[in-house]
Amino acid sequence: MNQALLFQRLRVQLLRNSWHVMVRQSSMRPLTILLCSLIVWVFVFTISWGGFLFLHTEIGVPLTGEIVGILLDLLFLSLAVLLIFSSGLILYSSLFTSPETAFLLSSPVAADQVFAYKFQGAVAFSSWAFLLLGAPILIAYGLVCEAGWYFYVLLPLFFLGFVLLPGSLGGLAALLIVNYFPKRRKQVLGTCLAALALTLTVWIYRMTTASPSELWRDEMREAVTRLLSYFQFTRNPLAPSHWVSLGLRRVVRGEVGVALYYLALVWSNGLFFYLIAAVASTWLYRRGYNRMTTGSDFWANGRRLLAARDAVSQLAGSTRRQMPAVRREFWMDRLLYGVLFFAHPCTRLLLIKDFRTFRRDPQQWGQILAFCGLMLLYFLNIRRFVEDVSGPYQNSISFLNLCAVALLLCTYTGRFVYPMLSLEGSRFWILGLLPFQREQLLWGKFAFSLTGGCLIAGGLVLASDLMLLMPILPVLLHLLTVAVLAAGLSGLSVGLGAIMPNFRENDPSKIAAGFGGTLNLVAGLLFLLLILGLMAAPWHMGAYLAMIPLLSEIDPGPALLSWGFLGTGVVLGLFAGIACVILPLRAGVRALREMEF
Amino acid sequence: MIKLDHVTKKYGTKTAVQDVSLDIAAGELFAFLGPNGAGKTTTIKMMCGLLFPTSGTVSIGGHDLCRDGDRARQLLSYVPDQPFLYEKLTGREFLQFIADMYGLSRAQSAQRVAEMIELFELHEFIDDLTERYSHGMRQRTVFAAALVHEPRVLIVDEPTVGLDPHSVRRLKDLLRRQADRGTTVFLSSHSLDVVEELADRIAIIEHGRLVACGTLKALRQQAAVDGPLEDVFLTLTRPLEDKVTKP
What we know:
The complex is a heterodimer.
Chain A: H1 3-25, H2 28-59, H3 66-97, H4 99-105, H5 111-144, H6 149-180, H7 185-208, H8 212-215, H9 220-229, H10 240-253, H11 256-294, H12 297-315, H13 325-339, H14 345-359, H15 362-380, H16 382-385, H17 392-417, H18 428-433, H19 439-467, H20 472-499, H21 508-512, H22 515-546, H23 549-554, H24 557-594
Helix pairs in contact in A: 1-5, 2-5, 3-5, 3-6, 3-10, 5-6, 5-11, 6-10, 6-11, 10-11, 14-19, 15-17, 15-19, 17-19, 17-20, 17-22, 19-20, 20-22, 20-24, 22-24
Chain B: E1 2-11, E2 14-24, E3 29-33, H1 40-48, E4 55-60, E5 63-64, H2 69-74, E6 76-79, H3 91-101, H4 106-119, H5 135-147, E7 153-157, H6 165-180, E8 184-188, H7 192-198, E9 201-206, E10 209-214, H8 216-223, H9 229-236, H10 240-245
Parallel strand pairs in B: 3-8, 3-9, 6-7, 7-8
Antiparallel strand pairs in B: 1-2, 1-4, 4-5, 9-10
């Protein structure tokens, strides 16, 4: 059988069997996933549809014109950058570090066939988010523009052709980095991400210096032209994202012939780059695996140079010798040990272990760091967007920022804290035999999650409120809300993680995406809504009502009523938070005590 | 059938295998011994084409693994110490996949899969997903997959770990039978009793260097020990300071 067909059949069999297992284990899980996806899809569609309709009917922006074109350019460019990184990372792990790799490489299968098989999986996995988030935006665009049926036929074709190119670039980058920087691949990736973040920061800074609040003072036309000039880089005629944007706008206008030209351009370039990546894989894949496993001469030379430098430093009596890795990391552990003075010594030791594991896996903290960095960047630049930070803007933006941080916290606990117990996996018996009570294990993980959550979310909320010049009361209220959220979400994630552990899986993202993980996420979101509604919303509602002068003059009741709501809400929120810590943890402790391993 | 010609493999600045030469004939059951970290697995990985030698050549059936790797790999099967199975495939689907991967025709693969199920007594669980298999069931399935395409070279790394005495007996019979049929069996193991019972020739590697290679009788002569393989092995791999103080 043809090797390409063989891998396709393997993929179909694996998907079919996984689906059967999932349905057999619980039909709730696929239904929940489907329902959640549908809710997100409908939400994004509604927002986009309303947005495009507003632009078109209220502001009079032509939907096939340049302004919407820039928005589409930006959408596809962002998607391309994300796809390069995500498909590159997925391809790196599936080509070089998965257990399947050694099995396939010791078989007579051609290297480019393995690459093709892994490439399809990586691109499909990394671009599914487009189906969930990009498709409703573009379908809403087509509906508002009253595009013909061919728009909906050509849309998936444009997308399929488009994902080939960033996917190929990501794959090519993974092959080159592993081949030429086999022992420094994380540093190279870190440098690339840092460069991207720096570029983004500079661009946002430059753009926000021309923020709307300043622009209103200029002539409108001149101001908009100036603002649009900052997006000019997205419209490079050689950028494939621009071809997709142009092609889709031409379809909407009914110029199908021109659109097909752009479609051909996207596909031919996508296939060309895929060909380059596939040909490169025939030379570089096996070689890269060898170099990554054994280290390269480049690295050996580097180590020899370091050894030589150390020798020279010793001869010169230099005291600036590099500290060994263990010594460098030690202060972080000591710091954490000190910060957690309130915990039992055994719990603290377990926390240090969890922290070390977390710290040494950049895939774990890298995502949190990226989200927090972007959020912090936005908070620190709020004042550039909103000149007058008093009044309704201050009130609503601070509440929305709190909601965003709460969602981040919910993601953090669902993605990283929930799988922690399951990740002990086959090593769980070691912890089970340690001379301390098993519940300390859960309390340790809870304390770890609570400390991390409070530090991250508290810091972000504080930055947002300080930038918005919020009064002291809501700042304290927000911090209290964050603390209750961190405690409750940590309790839920640790407790449910103990009730529904998955010791067979080593990949935390798969544990988080499982039935227990999905249930935890849904429970976390409900808890989040409850706490925000009880603890933060009353103050913001009261402050908003107090801003309506006529209303407060006629009847001061609503403002006074909100104080009553505030007090009751905080008390109820605290009770809800305590319940979400105690109940899941108690159930988790019970499950852990009864666990056999 | 397997030829290593002055093979050296370096991991950065550390030499894992140094100037190893081996020539193993068809139908030979060749055992490869050595302490932990001696370079056994590195050597095996070079023989499978997973790693490339820093210098020297490795060839299987006359095909150089660096230049003509796909053809060389077509001739061999590798059973690692931690074998891989697709968790979401049934045993039968896995065997079929391996048969297709090695280019067996539909009729051939159906016949060989049926033979392997019979030989390894896989009937009871062959249509279950492999994620539910016990260690013994996995090991039997892995060996069935390794032999389904009738390889000319079978490379086995630590096959007896975790197996019960019945399974070990079956495995020993299987390896001997394969060698008698003309398959070259390259066995890496710490189970010296298994090696002593089965091997035609034995090589011992230590710190990446081949310290002994020959029949058990030749090894006994080299070590000047007239006892079991365990004594021979311990003598030949004794730390250097011990050799100086206790000749």
